Structures are given as C-alpha cells and as structure tokens.
GNAT family N-acetyltransferase
Amino acid sequence: MALTLRTLTPDDLHDFQRVVDAAFLNDVREDRLDRYGDLFEPGRTHAVFDGDEMVGGGGVQTREMTVPGGGPQPVAAVTSVVVKPDHRRRGVLTRVMRGQLDDLRDGGEAVAALWASEAAIYGRFGYGLAAEFARLSVPKNAAFHPGVSLGGARVREVPRDEAMPHMRDVYEALRPSRTGWLSRNDAQWGHHFADEEHDRGGLSAYKYVKHPEGYAVYRVKQDWQERGPRGELHVREIAALTPEAYAALYRHLLDMDLIGELKFFTASDDPVLHLLADVRLALRSRSDSLWVRLVDVDRALAQRRYGSDVDVVLAVSDGFCPWNAGRVRLTVKGGEATAQRVDDDPDVELDVQALGAAYLGGTRLTSLARAQRVREITPGSLNALSHAFLGDHEPHCPEVF
Ligand SMILES: CC(=O)SCCNC(=O)CCNC(=O)[C@H](O)C(C)(C)COP(=O)(O)OP(=O)(O)OC[C@H]1O[C@@H](n2cnc3c(N)ncnc32)[C@H](O)[C@@H]1OP(=O)(O)O
C-alpha cells in the first residue's frame, strides 16, 4: 500500500467528514457534512491517502490554553484523529502524528493537547496524561455546610439568546486564571452548545441559568417512577466569578423539583464537594482528560510559571521528536523560568511524555518517579522540581474538542 500524506484543501472537507464518521462509527449523514466544516482548519488538517482514497487524518485547531501562572498560551488542539476501520494498524495514525509534529516544529505552537478516545493510543507519540476530570453524581436537596452564603443576587432561567453573551463574558473573565481552559471562537461556542435533536442523547434541550456573576447550562432526563419523579439533571457547564454565585447556581440546580440527582463532569478539585455538608453524598469517579505533548520543550517550559524556585538539569529523551532530546537547565527565579541547553551533568532524567504529564501541574513528577517514568540522579532535585511544577488548582478542560 503506497500511502501519501498531505494537508486538506477546502474541497476535501466533506471527504474528511465522511472518514471521521466512518472512524467513530457514526451514521454518515450526507445532509450534515457541512456541520463541522468551520471547526476544521484545512491547512492544519492532515489526511492520508491510499491511492486516491482518503483513509485517515487528523486536525489541529489554533487555540489558546491557560497554563499555570502563565495565562492563555498558544496550543495546537489536536482533534478528529481518524483512520477508516479497514485501514487500521498499518501505520496511518503514525503518518498523521509525524506530519502534525513536523509541521508544528516548523514555527508552530510549543505545546499540543488532546482528549484521547482510548488512553493507550498517544503515549507512544510523547503525550502525557496531564489532567483528569471527575464524574460526580449528587442527590437532590443535598445540603450545604452551614457557613455557605448564596449572596443576594437572583438566579434566573433565561433563553439561549440572552444567556450566550453573558456566558461568553463570564468564561472570558475566568479563562486566564483557569489552567486547561481553552479559547473558543464562535464556531467552537456553537459546537460545544450544539442543541439539535440528535445532539441531546434522549435528554431535553439545553436550559440556561443566569446569575449576574455566573451561569449554568443543563439538560434533563425525565424519570417518572411510582414513588414520584426521579429525573436526572445533567450539568453541561457551570462557571462563576465568585464563591457566592457558584453556590447559588448549585443550590438552584440541586433544589430543582422533579429531579432525583445531578450528574456532571467537572474539575477533579471542584469545590462543590466542599460545599456539601455530607461529602459522601457525592458519588465520584475520575478519568483522564487532557493529554499534553511538549513539541518544543525549551519554549514550553519557559511559557508557564512555577510555584517555587528551582535550578535543575533535565536529561530529556524523546523518541518521536528527537529535536527535544538532550540536557536542559530549568532555572526558576521568582516564578519566571528560563530553559537552556547545557552539557552539565543531569539531576533528573525523564521522557518527554513525563514532562507533558507534569506540565499543567496536575500530575506530580514524584508520582511519575515511583512509576519508573522519571529518575532522580541528584538527591533532593526531584522533590524540588516536582513541587515547582504544581499549580494552585488542578488543571481541567471543560470541553471535549
Ligand atoms: C484526539 C482524537 O481525535 S482521539 C480519537 C482517536 N480516534 C478514534 O478513536 C477513532 C477510532 N480509531 C481509529 O481511527 C484508529 O484505530 C486509530 C486512529 C486510533 C489508530 O490508527 P492506526 O492507523 O490503526 O494506528 P497505527 O497503525 O499508526 O498504530 C501505531 C501504533 O499504535 C498502536 N495503536 C493504534 N491504535 C491503538 C489503540 N486504539 N489502542 C492501543 N494501541 C493502539 C498500534 O498497535 C501501533 O503500535 P506499534 O507501533 O507498537 O505497532
């Protein structure tokens, strides 16, 4: 099989959408081929061809992602990585990853990030598990601890048209300080809150809650049982500028009549757990969310800030992007970092995958060392480095892209 790789032209977008549908086992809807067109950037979307047939591909969205202390920074948001079911395990994905990362090296973003459909796929390409999300389920009427203030502002259910501009303002105000949050253009806002019948998975249309300092968006699954209604309220997104607004929005959702339970996915350190008087009422599980790849280790390391001063030489290995391999001195003074290539003896040895995992401050380098993914050479250097990488909150990406 002679495989070739190239980026798309706008004329290829329908074919690419068909490959996406085939790969994700979706029904191909010819009338909906334009639907995601504005999410793909043809010049940044690679496709692999077997002769004339497009058999796989993968895209990059040009976005920003907030990094610890460094605010929003450019990120290559990798999306729609797909191979047709009859062309798998023949290296098509590997060709796409090669093309993407080579292009990024050439003046692109220093960091790439993605959500993985399966967790075993991307480690080999240098992506590390950088963030987790929590799945929470909280019963209706769960009480808050007695010190909680809901403030005095009114919470209102409003139409989508009224909610959207307010949501965008709140999101933008929060984004610079929320590690893992992404910039969203109009198309991405529209896609994230797409609300046609088949987007709903059997649930209601979105309902929008507005607080002067926050918002929540949810769907409902009705469930009329013999003992009374036990509907499910699925929170799509909740964001608030103040603790009072946050508590008021949750109180509104938790006290909704006809509902038995609130279900949502959120940051693994979501304060909602600590709002509850009885934390065990919240059933919770965690899973991987963002996978991060440092495309240019030196630039990426200098792009974020750190929690404490440190001066260590890292011996970095990188099998897939060998330009990153070598010794880098990371020096942090007052939170600001420089990363310079040196010949000095290394203090810590690690793979680029481990650096990607630690990058957002959500995965401790000390844990990675216990998992034999990081090796301390100079005693004490690992603890110092691990501590410096931690952020003041867990990274979270509220949007699967
Ligand atoms: C960011 C995102 O878009 S995530 C979405 C990813 N896409 C999907 O899940 C859609 C369904 N799956 C697919 O389209 C394909 O199976 C893909 C894209 C996951 C893999 O594509 P392939 O062309 O089969 O991968 P390729 O042949 O290049 O495999 C490279 C290596 O990864 C391994 N690999 C590929 N897919 C998987 C997987 N799902 N689980 C574990 N290992 C995998 C291969 O075994 C191979 O290993 P080797 O180098 O040791 O031989």
Remarks:
- Residues 133 and 267 are 5 Å apart (CA to CA).
- The first helix runs from residue 13 to 23.
